[in-house]
Each structure stands twice: as structure tokens, then as C-alpha cells.
Amino acid sequence: RKTALNALYGLMQSADPIRVLVTGAAGQIAYSLLYSIAKGDVFGKDQPIILVLLDIPPMLPVLDGVVMELQDCALPLLREVIPTDKVEVGFKDLDAAILVGSMPRKEGMERKDLLKANVAIFKTQGAALEKYAKKTVRVLVVGNPANTNCLIASKSAPSIPKENFSCLTRLDHNRARSQVAMRCGVPADAVKNVIIWGNHSSTQYPDVHHAMVNVHGKEVEAYGAVKDDSWLKGDFISTVQLRGAAVIKARKLSSAMSAAKAICDHMRDWWFGTLDGEFMSMGVYAGGNSYGIPEDLIYSFPVHIKNKSWNIHDGLPVNDFSRAKMDATAAELVEERDTALSFLSQ
Amino acid sequence: MRLLPLRLRIPADPIRVLVTGAAGQIAYSLLYSIAKGDVFGKDQPIILVLLDIPPMLPVLDGVVMELQDCALPLLREVIPTDKVELGFKDLDAAILVGSMPRKEGMERKDLLKANVAIFKTQGAALEKYAKKSVRVLVVGNPANTNCLIASKSAPSIPKENFSCLTRLDHNRARSQVAMRCGVPADAVKNVIIWGNHSSTQYPDVHHAMVNVHGKEVEAYNAVKDDSWLKGDFISTVQLRGAAVIKARKLSSAMSAAKAICDHMRDWWFGTLDGEFMSMGVYAGGNSYGIPEDLIYSFPVHIKNKSWNIHDGLPINDFSRAKMDATAAELVEERDTALSFLSQ
């Protein structure tokens, strides 16, 4: 048995490693995320990883501490850890990029200032992807405002397919799933096909008109399982929209653990695909969408994923209630985009 | 491999798992892994009990919210509390992370006294409320002595059910040797951490093996640098905690959480043939000449949720001196702690 294990060991470790970048790598969300990536939860238990950690120069000593801890985790898949503050090292030959770092809102900062600062960051990072990364790179933007930052990065990397860029709405998706599950007294994975439409902001629209709940082995429509339309159209929506603030209020820190989990879910599904009959929420390029959403946006849709490619789940009937909410969040995104593009051209 | 959704697999009865210091840093890195199934298995539903002190209850609420937002199928229930009668009730496993941290100006004696009080209370609560089959892992420092106090305060729970964490040091030792040899961390096995989870711990690789290109090589031969293995390697592992704090300005939550998961998972599912792991366990009946009434880190095999010290390893003079030094520190800690216990 020992000889066989040794031989198998040799085979396993011979798979080519992939290069995965995490920005904001010295920060809170990365701290909850890196271990899961390095362990194999995202890219698979046989996929060795070269983990590239990018942050700003003042954070390099803290980043050294993170590198020490990753070593101390004694993880077999972690081929190499590369801490850096240089984009030419950070973005080189990437297979995947998780852009967590962004300019946080400081006290007294106007929304416009926040947008301007982040446009600068994501323009630089988009250009670095264009110049250094593989053209097949999959990019997940987490740093807020995620949708608009994602759009800016994509526009700054014109030779990388727009479909390779996405932003995170999976946290909102998981929150919506969990709220419905708790309401119905079932485990979270008994709820499927919730949808988050739009912007990862307080205008997001958590929609369960097409969701299904498994109750005692039977698939029931969510509205039928919950039996409380006013909750589903009222408090359920605001709870999910405002959950981030509720966590900050309680913890005095933002939601790193659950954000990291959502990042893992998003990347893993992008890599390995979704199950038949199930769709997930991803912020993706709206070009060619059949739901009447303005095209030049990164907008969260229900998607299927196969062979590392997503497709929007088309054909869902959209009632007036949903239409209004989907349009409202689109309008916010149009405004954000136009402000951001004005900064981009300066 | 795609797992069938939980609803299509045979659901098992949930186990009750307590984490103390649940609003703190280490717990924050740990709870997700437990709730995900990494420790107790992918088919084992869990009732997670989170205990902390009253001022931390609002923060604990935030942690509960986040666990819900993780949408984890195995998490049957989350119970936040500051009451021991709720926290320790019917437990299958207890991970005691919370302890009194060293404050500025605090003497080592004061720290020990404060922690004796905490672990006496928690040991008594285990005695009164938990299942007799409960497995207890003490993480909060001074871990070995806190563990001993808890065990002594729970006389009808077998001493063998109590352990303290030295797996972090074990993983650090593995990793240092692996990096030196240019191999992945799991190509190094059978390192040993002897003694106290403190700066007197003895990381010993005399019996460790390194897989180099498919061949098992003794660690001393793979590394080819005896003076490093007897010098800087040891001090690097001993002082690693402080090095991480210096860099991060916070202590090592991520790697500590990983070590806790490794320790509990191996306790639950056993070690592989030919491999042993480091655990702080009751030294009663040990064959290595270590004083008996201690919690001391030894190399152990685990099967059917029970550990056995790996006996019969030859001990040279170098190792003997180091093993005795860390034992002496533990004897002193114990005697000080017991004097407080009897007050």
C-alpha cells in the first residue's frame, strides 16, 4: 500500500500548477479566503497552485506574516507563494485573478470621490491583465463598487474576452438562499434558483419567483413553500439588501468569512460548472441579454456554467414587480458607469 | 467530485460541538471549516454551540449572521450563549479556544491564576453537562496546564478524552523541513513535538521521513544539515508564533485554525498506518520517562477515536535533555496552578 501511495503521490504532484492572484492580500477578506484556495476547495483537490499575493507597499510586512501562516498550514497543493507590490509580478501569466483590494470609503468621502479613486485602481489593474496575464484568465472583481470596477477593468483589457470578467453577487445570493431556508426550516442547499439581479449594492433585487425549495423530498415553488408573499416582497428583500450593514454593526468589521465563502463558490462553479437545472447569480457583461437590461454594464444575472463559460438563463417570465426593481438597479448602474467613464477619459 | 445534496444522502444524527472564545480571532478562522464538514466529515450534521463572555454577545450575533450567510447544508443549528449550562450541554466535542490573554504588566503567575479559574469552571461544566464520551481540545494558553486543570475538574470523564494543541507546532516543523528539502509539506511525515506548547517545546525530526522523488528518506539525510536541524530549525519553530505576531500585528489565527481542524479530524477518523501526529495528552503510563501527572505532547497513533503513544523510539542524549527541560517547565506550571486550585 505504501509503494502505491508513493507512486500516486508522484503522479498527483505532477499536474501543472495554475497561477492565481489575490489583491488586497494583506486584508481581512483575503485572510479568510487564502486558506480555502490553497487547500483545494476552489480549483480542485489535485490542482497545485502558485498563489500570488498583491497589496500596496505599506502592507508588505503584514503580507510577510500571511505568507508565514500559509507555510505553517502545511498545505500540499500550495506549490509557491509570491508576495508582491508590483503589478508586473502580480499579473504575470495568470489563470485566475480575484481582485479584492479597492479604495475603502473614508469618513467625509463623497461617493464621487470613491468612484474616482477606484476607477484609477481598476484601470491600472485592467491594463496589467491586458499586458501580463494569459488571455484565458478568469477575473472576479470583489472590491466595491464591484460591478463598475469590473466594467472599468474589462474596458482597460480590450483583448481579453468580456466574458472572462465577472463581479461577486454570490454573497447576496447565498444570503437570499439562507433567509428562505431558515423561513422554511430546511438546510440551505434545499433552496435553489434564487436570483440576484443588478448591482451589488442596496438596489440589488433578490428574486425568488423562480426558486424551488425541497420540502420533505418534494420540490415546491418558493412562494408556495414560504406562504408569505408580503415578506418575500418586503422584509426578505430589505434583509438581504442591508445584510452587509447589519453584520458590520454587530461585528464592528465587515463580513469576511461569508464573503470568502461566496468567492470560493463563485470561482468553483466557474471552474467546474453548475448542476443541471440549477443556476447561480454572477455579475456579468450584459451585452446581448434578453431581459431588456442596458448592454454596456456588468449586471448580475442568473447563469448556467459549463466548460468555464457562463450563459444567462433566458426566458424567465418577469412580472411588473420584478421589472420595476430590475430597472431601478440598472439605472443606478448606468449612472455609476457614466460617472466612472468620465473619470476614465480624464 | 460532485457530492449529492444532503437531502439525497442518508442524514445522520447531528453532533454537538462547542467552541469557546467564539467571538474571537481564532474562532473566526475556524468555525467555517467546522461547519463545512472539513473536521467531522461531509455527511455529519452539526449543532454548533458558540460560547463567549457577556460583553462579546453582540459580536457573536454578527458571527451567527455570517454563518447563516455561508449557506452551509451541514449546519443544523447555531447556538450563541454566555451560559455554561447551555454551552456545555450534551457535547460530543469541545474546542476551548477562549482563555485570559496576557495584559500589559501581567506577571506569568497572574496569568496562570486567571486561567486556572476559567478552566476549573469549564472542567466542572463538562463534568456536569457534557456527554462522558466528549472529546476536549484545549487551545487557549497556557494550553497544557489549562488542559490538566480542566481534566482534574472533570473526574468522571476519562483523562484520555482531554488533549491540548501542539499540532500547529507540528505543522510548522513539517513545513520548515519541506521547504528546506524543496518538497510539498505532506511529503514530510513523523516529525514530533515533545512537551509544552511554549518556547521550551522540542521539535524532533530524528524519526521523520521525507518523500524525495517517490523514495522515503530519513529527514536528517534529506536535509543534510545537522547543525540546522539541531539549531535554527528548532528555534524557528519554537519562536514562530512571535514572528507571525511581529509581522501581522495579530496572532496566527489562520494557521491555528488549520491545526485545530487537523487535530480534531485525526482524532475523529484516525491516523494513517505508519504515521503518527503530535498531541498534548495525559502522560500517565508513558514509556519515555516523562513525569506522569502532566499534559505533555507526544507522538500518537489514533484509531477508533482513541490515541496511543508511539512507543519504542530511541532517544539520544540531545533529545533527552530537551524532552526533560520542557517537562520541568510543565511540572513547575502544574505545581503553581494546583496551588491556586486548592485556594
Automatic annotation (TrEMBL), chain A:
Any one GO BP annotation for this protein: tricarboxylic acid cycle
Domain Lactate/malate dehydrogenase C-terminal intervals: 169-343
Positions contributing to substrate binding: R105, R111, N144, R175
Entry EC number(s): 1.1.1.37
InterPro entries with a match to the protein in the record: L-lactate/malate_DH (IPR001557), Lactate/malate_DH_C (IPR022383), Lactate/malate_DH_N (IPR001236), Lactate_DH/Glyco_Ohase_4_C (IPR015955), Malate_DH_AS (IPR001252), Malate_DH_NAD-dep_euk (IPR011274), Malate_DH_type2 (IPR010945), NAD(P)-bd_dom_sf (IPR036291)
Keywords for the protein's UniProt record, in alphabetical order: NAD, Oxidoreductase, Tricarboxylic acid cycle
Record's catalysed reaction(s): (S)-malate + NAD(+) = oxaloacetate + NADH + H(+); (S)-2-hydroxyglutarate + NAD(+) = 2-oxoglutarate + NADH + H(+)
Pfam families: Ldh_1_C (PF02866), Ldh_1_N (PF00056)
GO molecular function, one term: L-malate dehydrogenase (NAD+) activity
Domain of life of the source: Eukaryota
Residues noted as binding NAD(+) in the record, renumbered to the chain: D55, N118, V142, G143, N144
Family: Belongs to the LDH/MDH superfamily. MDH type 2 family.
Function field: Catalyzes the reduction of aromatic alpha-keto acids in the presence of NADH. Plays essential roles in the malate-aspartate shuttle and the tricarboxylic acid cycle, important in mitochondrial NADH supply for oxidative phosphorylation. Catalyzes the reduction of 2-oxoglutarate to 2-hydroxyglutarate, leading to elevated reactive oxygen species (ROS).
Protein name listed in UniProt: Malate dehydrogenase
Gene name per UniProt: MDH1
UniProtKB/TrEMBL annotation, chain B:
Active site location: H197 (proton acceptor)
InterPro entries: L-lactate/malate_DH, Lactate/malate_DH_C, Lactate/malate_DH_N, Lactate_DH/Glyco_Ohase_4_C, Malate_DH_AS, Malate_DH_NAD-dep_euk, Malate_DH_type2, NAD(P)-bd_dom_sf
GO biological process: malate metabolic process; tricarboxylic acid cycle
GO MF: L-malate dehydrogenase (NAD+) activity
Domain of life: Eukaryota
Domain Lactate/malate dehydrogenase N-terminal: 16-162
Entry EC number(s): 1.1.1.37
The keyword NAD belongs to this UniProt entry's keyword annotation: yes
SUPFAM superfamilies: LDH C-terminal domain-like (SSF56327), NAD(P)-binding Rossmann-fold domains (SSF51735)
Catalytic activity annotation: (S)-2-hydroxyglutarate + NAD(+) = 2-oxoglutarate + NADH + H(+); (S)-malate + NAD(+) = oxaloacetate + NADH + H(+)
Binding site for NAD(+): D52, N115, V139, G140, N141
Annotated family: Belongs to the LDH/MDH superfamily. MDH type 2 family.
Function per UniProt: Catalyzes the reduction of aromatic alpha-keto acids in the presence of NADH. Plays essential roles in the malate-aspartate shuttle and the tricarboxylic acid cycle, important in mitochondrial NADH supply for oxidative phosphorylation. Catalyzes the reduction of 2-oxoglutarate to 2-hydroxyglutarate, leading to elevated reactive oxygen species (ROS).
Protein name listed in UniProt: Malate dehydrogenase
Organism: Oncorhynchus kisutch
